Amino acid sequence: MSYPQKSRSNAWFLLPILFGMLGGIAAFFIIRKDDPGKARNCLYLGIIFMIVGIMLNVLISSTIPEFDSGFNVNI
Predict the structure, then answer these.
(1) Cα–Cα distance measured from residue 49 to residue 43, given in angstroms and rounded to the nearest whole number
(2) Ramachandran angles phi, psi of 31, nearest 5°
(3) pTM score, two decimals?
(4) Can you give the residue ranges of every domain in the chain?
(5) Rounded Cα distance, 7 and 45, in Å
(6) pLDDT one-digit tens code per residue, 50-70
């Protein structure tokens, strides 16, 4: 079944920017029939932001000094 292509607003790119992978998936399924190219780009943008988020989390967690097993607490 072929759907007529309609140009959708660029505001759809805000969904993956604000919500990452979940926003990219939501934008993809909402606009995939009207504008498949933009839907695919929203999905890719969500994947990219997810990967960047994971890399930042790993970077930040590696710079935090590790805790000792006792946490300096005397019981």
Answers:
(1) 10
(2) -110, 10
(3) 0.75
(4) 10-62
(5) 18
(6) 999 999 998 888 877 665 566
